[in-house]
Design goal:
Length: 391
């Protein structure tokens, strides 16, 4: 087969009755339960295809069809990798086999790798297709979506993860190995008495980010437990130890200093500093279900709480809570300056504004009067700037 033959074949497959263009697809290695081998504990992807490489998707679907599989009409599909599938796929990919090294033709590289495995080894691999962004139904599809977020192939808050907690099993993690809790309970005596009881790092449904993702060169994570799989860290982000944490479907859009908590669905713009112990609320934490975005070059002071979206160049002083219902005093002079910085803000002057009325505005400085205890908001006159040498 020549390369021209390959492209002709792809066009024929894509015109066939069985072909479905996927949202995403990939080949996963699965970890099975130690007690129940049919229970999938984790799915690992060397790489994923997200709205890309449709030629490889066509080849995989034809190989599945030739191996006796029916292309699903559901929102997702998970297929066992069989020798027949691998042999069919590698024959169709023959024009690219020599070129499939390094960063080139990753899907072909995967087929080449699978071709070297025996039947028993192949039993732990799956071909996974997502045809729609529906609520995930399998462990494999949840992990594919988490990879899409953590690799930056899908924007934060753009992927349907409804019901993911119900799909994923709760397991004990020892390094990169998930261990079934029931198996640990049943074998506790023998494992402990023989000195074979594993070191358990965490018990959770989600693994840690660094168990699956290689970050950008200038991204630093000083404690692996502080970032959950499904988080997204832009290049230049620094996650310090201590009170920091970044949940799944949350993260940064550029260089950010993280010493506080970025809850699920919260997104932080480049150049911002999340101070020690500062907390950005998630959608289940008092934001009326509204996800929080923090703009660029903002500073959230130590131990502050932010429960409204902030625009660019905002400051929240240490130790205060900026919530939807918090009442803030504004002078007429500062109101004018805030309006000037936010010309689209349709508001008339009044002395007291609730936090929700200030959501998303640029250049705000939230603070508490240390004499009266009154919460106030000013037009910020300070520039937040990260140390470029550290990011």
């Amino acid at each position: 087969m020549t390369k021209e033959d390959f492209f002709t074949l792809v066009n024929q497959i894509q015109s066939s009755d069985y072909y479905r263009e996927p949202l995403a697809f990939a080949i996963a290695k699965i970890d099975r339960g130690q007690k129940d081998p049919d229970k999938i504990l984790q799915a690992t992807y060397a790489f994923i295809n997200w709205q890309e490489n449709f030629g490889s998707a066509a080849i995989f679907q034809k190989a599945l069809a030739e191996a006796g599989q029916t292309i699903s009409q559901e929102s997702e599909a998970v297929y066992e990798v069989t020798r027949a599938f691998v042999d069919s796929a590698i024959a169709m990919c023959s024009p690219w086999l020599e070129e499939a090294v390094g960063e080139a033709h990753k899907n072909v590289q995967m087929i080449k790798f699978l071709s070297k495995l025996d039947e028993e080894e192949l039993a732990d691999f799956r071909v996974v297709f997502l045809f729609e962004d529906a609520a995930p139904k399998s462990v494999e599809s949840v992990y594919l979506k988490l990879y899409a977020l953590s690799t930056g192939k899908a924007p934060l808050r753009s992927v349907n993860l409804n019901g993911a907690f119900g799909v994923l099993p709760n397991v004990a993690w020892s390094g990169n190995t998930p261990i079934e809790l029931d198996w640990l309970r049943e074998n506790e005596l023998e494992l402990k008495m023989t000195g074979q009881y594993p070191v358990i790092d965490v018990v959770d449904k989600f693994p840690r980010f660094l168990q699956h993702i290689i970050p950008a060169d200038n991204t630093r994570i000083l404690d692996a437990s502080k970032v959950r799989m499904g988080a997204q860290l832009a290049a230049g982000t620094t996650v310090m130890p201590g009170a920091s944490y970044i949940n799944f479907n949350a993260g940064t859009l550029g260089p950010v200093m993280v010493e506080g908590r970025i809850s699920s669905s919260a997104v932080v713009g480049k150049g911002s500093d999340i101070g020690g112990g500062a907390s950005i609320l998630g959608v289940l934490s008092g934001t009326s279900g509204n996800p929080i975005s923090i703009g660029e070059n903002c500073l959230l002071g130590a131990n502050s709480v932010t429960g409204i979206p902030l625009g660019d160049g905002c400051i929240v002083d240490a130790g205060i809570a900026v919530l939807e219902g918090t009442k803030f005093f504004v002078t007429q002079e500062d109101f004018g300056k805030i309006k000037e910085a936010n010309p689209e803000w349709q508001a008339s002057y009044k002395e007291i504004f609730k936090g929700r009325e200030l959501a998303g505005l640029n250049g705000l400085h939230f603070r508490q009067d240390s004499t009266t205890g009154q919460m106030k908001v000013f037009r910020s006159n300070k520039e937040v700037k990260l140390n470029e040498e550290l990011h």
